[in-house]
Amino acid sequence: MRLATLLTTGLLALLLAGGGAAAPSVIHHQGRLLDDSGAPMTGSVTLHFALYASATDPTPVWLESHGGVPLQDGLFHVLLGGESSLDPGTFADDLWLGVRVNGEAELSPRMHLGSVPHAFRAQRVDELDADNVAQLLALLNSLPDADGDGYTALKFGGDDCDDRDAAVHPGATEVCDGQDNDCNGTPDDDFEAYWWYPDADGDGFGRGPAGRLTCEPPAGWVMVDGDCDDSDASRHPGAVEVCDGLDNDCDGQVDDNPSTGLTYYYDEDQDGYGAGAGQRFCVPPFSYWAQAAGDCNNSDAAIYPGAPEICDNQDNNCDGQTDEGLGQMWYPDNDGDGWGADGSGIWACEMPWGSYTSTSGDCDDSNSSVWPGSAEICGDGVDNNCDGQVDESCP
């Protein structure tokens, strides 16, 4: 009895190994048993596996047995580590695999295993010629359950949607990995998917349009798009704009309203004073901007803080007062006696249109014979001189 070298080479593939030459959790082992005449064996057998530190070492570093292993045209497959745990420390150096069938002696020679990224292989794998590799692939493709997960491949009438991965089969737990783990036709179902974008500079903002719709982000990807320079972590939406000739906040404008620079105010009438909240500029802007603020009328160049106040019923110097220090009170003189009534005046630089006077104190602005200083007329019962008395000094 012998183990066909065609299938014992290169068939110790890792199912759960990490990157590089990480030690496996479970090894998927396949082979083909031939009898002494070279014919494939049939039925089922008990297989005993052992790992040794050398080709002749009598003491194994690991043992495991699998009973009732079925043979199909001599082919078998088992999961090493499924019965006896594989200690990661065992794989620090090269190992030799020994195989016994039923209770017979160990098959010779042992297979020398060398570690390679993501797999352990027999030493003779590099010696296979092109024809043997083709035969090896053909035999692998002929296995109804190539990954040994207990489910038959689709091409053999089964329902295993990926017969290369033992973690993928009907009833498997769906995980967020972009695959259809449970073979129900939908990858990552039961997980909510989001758009993610690559964030090369690590500033928390990605750059589209190369987004991916997945339930978990790929390494180094983020949910927020809009970075205008994914090689500079200081440039992203919401960043502080500074005077450096770059669009720091990714709003499509360079050096707009930066935190550095000087503040200017819009000066519509170009009188040297602007109004409004002001805006920062890295370099002085063109016309219609001024560094001084406080213009209370930005459409009249004669009105600005510090302008001379003139008698025009406007606040020329923007101090909140109109014609202050100019003009006087004018009183309506309804009876034309040259005197106006108290409390009825208006402030003006010039006498308003109509009958007005600059003097007040008329106690009856409807009677031209009544005004301060008028002669008192005895017997008329009127305070003619507006002194608060009637017919005073009359006999």
Could you give a quick summary of the protein structure above?
It contains two helices and 19 strands. It is mainly beta and 395 residues long.
Notes on the protein architecture:
With 395 residues, the chain is mainly beta. Among the domains are: 2-141, Immunoglobulins (Immunoglobulin-like), CATH 2.60.40.10; 327-395, no CATH class. The protein contains 2 helices and 19 strands. The strands form 4 sheets. Strands 1, 2, 3, 4, 5, 6, 7, 8 and 9 form a 9-stranded antiparallel sheet that branches. A 4-stranded mixed sheet has the order 15-13-14-16, with no helix packed on it. It has a 3-stranded antiparallel sheet with strand order 11-10-12, with no helix packed on it. A hairpin with a 2-residue loop joins strand 8 (111-116) and strand 9. The chain starts with a strand and ends in a 38-residue tail after the last strand. The model is unreliable at 4-23 and 115-127 (pLDDT under 50).
Give me the secondary-structure topology.
Blueprint: E1 2-3, H1 5-8, E2 12-14, E3 27-34, E4 43-52, E5 62-71, E6 75-80, E7 95-101, E8 111-116, E9 119-122, H2 130-141, E10 194-198, E11 212-214, E12 221-222, E13 262-266, E14 273-281, E15 289-290, E16 292-293, E17 328-332, E18 346-348, E19 356-357
Parallel strand pairs: 14-16
Antiparallel strand pairs: 1-3, 2-3, 2-9, 3-6, 4-5, 4-7, 7-8, 8-9, 10-11, 10-12, 13-14, 13-15, 17-18, 17-19
